[in-house]
Write a structure and sequence with these properties.
Elements (H helix, E strand, L loop, with lengths): L5 H9 L12 H9 L10 H5 L9 H8 L4 H14 L4 H11 L12 H10 L3 H10 L21 H22 L9 H9 L11 H4 L5 H24 L7 E6 L2 E6 L6 E4 L2 E7 L4 E4 L8 E7 L4 E3 L9 E3 L2 E6 L5 E3 L7 E3 L2 E6 L5 E3 L2 E3 L2 E3 L2 E6 L5 E4 L1 E3 L2 E2 L4 E6 L5 E4 L16 E4 L2 E3 L15 E6 L5 E3 L2 E3 L2 E3 L3 E7 L4 E4 L1 E3 L2 E3 L3 E7 L5 E4 L2 E3 L2 E3 L3 E8 L3 E4 L1 E3 L2 E3 L3 E8 L3 E4 L9 E3 L13 E6 L17 E4 L13 E6 L18
Parallel strand pairs: 2-4, 3-5, 4-6, 5-7, 6-9, 7-10, 8-11, 9-12, 10-13, 11-15, 12-16, 13-17, 14-18, 15-19, 16-20, 17-21, 19-23, 20-24, 21-25, 22-26, 23-27, 24-28, 25-29, 26-30, 27-31, 28-32, 29-33, 31-35, 32-36, 33-37, 34-38, 35-39, 36-40, 37-41, 39-42, 40-43, 43-45
Antiparallel strand pairs: 1-2, 44-45
Length: 672
């Protein structure tokens, strides 16, 4: 990714335009000077991050944001646009997500398929050739499948299914390579208990935290790319074939069930360990039963109809993966997805994909769902339509340790809810509320309170491309990071509403980073009932918030709206529009300020930066925030004003200015 300095971005974005004041000065350098900032990059404490015992686990994009927070809006915008450009190709989305894990691999969709194609076309029966790899494995030794004849399963459908099965052989080999260094005793139940429930014995072996470094990420990504490429081709074939032959066939294999139904019937499928399911037409119902310990790969493609996918078992639906791969692709229709724990694009040491091609859909789960990843990759892509996502915790684009989770919704008026009913994971900050940890969240694990073994967090990206959307959550949500994790929420256009309590809307806590980027000119509402929200960082963290334009309404508790707390960086920027600000706490601990948790320690000289910018319109500020006003500038409060400590660097500005950084690529391809 192209890296530009903050000063260069300012020069390009402003282009010498004259401002309302003379002589003209760009707002960011002036604001940094007003705050008395010791660093122009805005980095809270890069030396401390380098000294972390989990330094080698930190993901590259997280480190880039922590090193230069003032470049973060541009970096986040370019990242969002790269996913936006690939929204029509699940293969490309998986590749982008894999790159965020640090995997050094580019594997085009065509790579590896020509050899498979040649082998299948040369075989007397391509279906038999596509299945042959199973009999060559220990679990399939001696297995002889009973196959349908060409009248029951004719070409070209027979060849297309054979191609997917042959691709599964390649992906199976990749999986074996990805986890070949794992010790005996690693099971899905053990991983869920440790990574999801947090129940580990003291220095228990195996320990999922120590397994993270043993995964060969390139192998894991390569196998998923091959598998998604094969399903992408099958999906294109099914959609373009004018008249598929009516087929109803199933086969139990050593790796799970194959089910094919192209009759157009309204089917009810009860599935345990599905390997490959293809259903064309009809309003179908799928019930997923608890998976077996050895089940590693599931693919389900449903074309047309209003369908329902339901399970109560953890990791059972086809879009979940534990030590393997899971793909669920529904091409169209108004669909309903119902799950509990680990459902709807959830990867635990694996790669998971859920694609819904369109319609108004309902996604309901409990936790670790709707794009959640630990030790792997999870992508949920939903097309146009009014979608509703509902869960309690750790869902809706949540990247855990060594995990990247991406949720992309391309259009419609959507609703994202992380609620309190039932109360399943009480928050330490507010015990009556759940720890949401979602809607664009990256989290790690602090071992300080257990055995001392910490683990760095992952990356969670929620990207909503259009519509009037509503986001509701509790604690840790909406572009939030926790312990060396990075969370991003990018919303393009529409009149949106964001509600949360604590650590939300571009916030980070404990060496983490969170970004909320709202592009376009929508009239938006932001509500935080408690603290550390809307461009706020706590404890050596980074919180970034940017709203590009519109008449916006903000209401917060405290330590919000551009606040650095305990040696952090908080950046709040609102572009053009007539905005209203309300701060419920007294005194007014908000609007461009930097505070320390306590004095009399070595942190007094570390950077701590809080910046507030409102760059247009006639704006309203609360009366008890006497320092902030329309068309003015101010310095944040200082406990030790004569010392001019870098740990008390805060400032705000309200005036008529362009944005001090780009939110999109600065150039475009040359015309032919």
């Amino acid at each position: 990714m192209l890296r530009l300095s903050a000063a260069f971005l300012i020069a390009l974005a402003l282009g010498g335009r004259a401002g309302a004041q003379a002589p003209y000065q760009p707002p960011l350098p002036e604001l940094l000077q007003q705050a008395g900032a010791a660093t122009r990059s805005g980095a809270p404490d890069p030396a401390g991050l380098d000294a972390s015992p989990t330094r080698e686990q930190q993901l590259p994009f997280f480190r880039a944001v922590m090193a230069a927070p003032l470049d973060a809006p541009y970096r986040a915008g370019v990242l969002g646009d790269s996913f936006k450009a690939e929204a029509g190709s699940p293969h490309a989305l998986i590749g982008r997500a894999g790159a965020l894990t640090g995997a050094r691999l580019r594997r085009p969709i065509e790579l590896g398929m020509p050899a498979i194609e040649a082998r299948l076309r040369a075989a007397p029966d391509p279906l038999a050739a596509g299945l042959a790899w199973m009999a060559a494995t220990p679990s399939g030794a001696g297995w002889v499948p009973v196959l349908p004849d060409h009248a029951q399963l004719p070409d070209p459908l027979r060849l297309e299914l054979a191609r997917v099965l042959a691709a599964m052989a390649q992906s199976h080999a990749f999986l074996q390579r990805a986890f070949e260094r794992f010790p005996p005793g690693v099971t899905p139940q053990l991983l869920r208990r440790q990574a999801f429930e947090g129940r580990l014995g003291l220095f228990e072996t195996p320990d999922y935290r120590q397994l993270l470094s043993l995964v060969e990420r390139e192998a894991l990504l390569g196998g998923m790319l091959d598998l998604v490429g094969a399903i992408e081709r099958l999906q294109q074939f099914v959609k373009s074939e004018p008249a598929l032959p009516p087929v109803a066939w199933s086969l139990q294999t050593p790796f799970g069930w194959i089910v094919v139904d192209t009759t157009g019937s309204d089917n009810r499928h009860q599935l345990k360990d599905p390997l490959l399911v293809l259903d064309v037409g009809g309003d179908d119902e799928y019930e997923f039963l608890a998976p077996g310990d050895a089940h590693r790969m599931s693919v389900l493609l449903d074309h047309r109809g209003n369908d329902r996918y339901a399970t109560t078992a953890a990791g059972a639906d086809a879009s979940s993966a534990t030590l393997g791969y899971g793909i669920l692709w529904d091409t169209e229709g108004d669909d309903r997805y119902e799950g509990g724990v680990q459902a709807q694009a959830s990867a635990l040491f694996g790669a998971a994909l859920l694609v819904d091609g369109g319609g108004s859909n309902r996604f309901v789960a409990s936790s670790r769902s709707q794009a959640h990843a630990v030790g792997g990759i999870a992508v949920l892509a939903s097309g146009g339509g009014a979608d509703a996502f509902t869960a309690q915790t750790y869902s809706q684009a949540t990247g855990g340790p060594q995990g990247v989770a991406v949720l992309v919704d391309t259009g419609g008026d959507d609703r994202y809810t992380l609620n309190n009913t039932p109360l399943v994971r009480p928050s330490p900050q507010l015990p009556e509320r759940n720890t949401s940890m979602g809607q664009g969240a990256g989290y790690g694990g602090r071992g300080d309170f257990f055995d001392g073994r910490s683990v760095a967090g992952g990356v969670g990206l929620l990207l909503d491309l259009a519509g009037d959307d509503r986001y509701e959550a509790q604690v840790f949500a909406q572009g939030v990071g926790y312990y060396e994790g990075l969370g991003l929420l990018l919303d393009d256009g529409g009149n949106d509403r964001f509600e949360a309590a604590w650590y939300a809307m571009g916030a980070g806590a404990h060496y983490a980073a969170g970004i909320l980027l709202k592009r376009g000119g929508g009239d938006d509402v932001y509500r935080s009932s408690h603290e550390v929200a809307l461009g706020a960082g706590h404890d050596l963290s980074v919180g970034v918030f940017v709203d590009e334009g519109g008449n916006d309404d903000y209401a917060v508790g405290q330590l919000s709206l551009g606040v650095g707390h305990a040696n952090s960086t908080g950046l709040f920027v609102d572009g053009v529009g007539n905005d209203r600000y309300a701060v419920m706490s007294a005194p007014c601990r908000a609007l461009g300020a930097a505070y320390q948790h306590q004095w009399g320690n070595a942190r007094e000289t570390l950077p701590n930066l809080g910046l507030f910018m409102d760059l247009g319109g006639v704006d309203s500020y609360p009366a008890h925030c006497a320092h902030a006003a329309n068309d003015s500038r101010w310095s944040g409060p200082r406990v030790w004003p004569k010392l001019r400590l870098a740990s008390e660097a805060g400032a705000g500005i309200d005036g008529d200015w362009p944005l001090p950084f780009a939110l999109r690529l600065l150039t475009r391809p040359a015309s032919p």
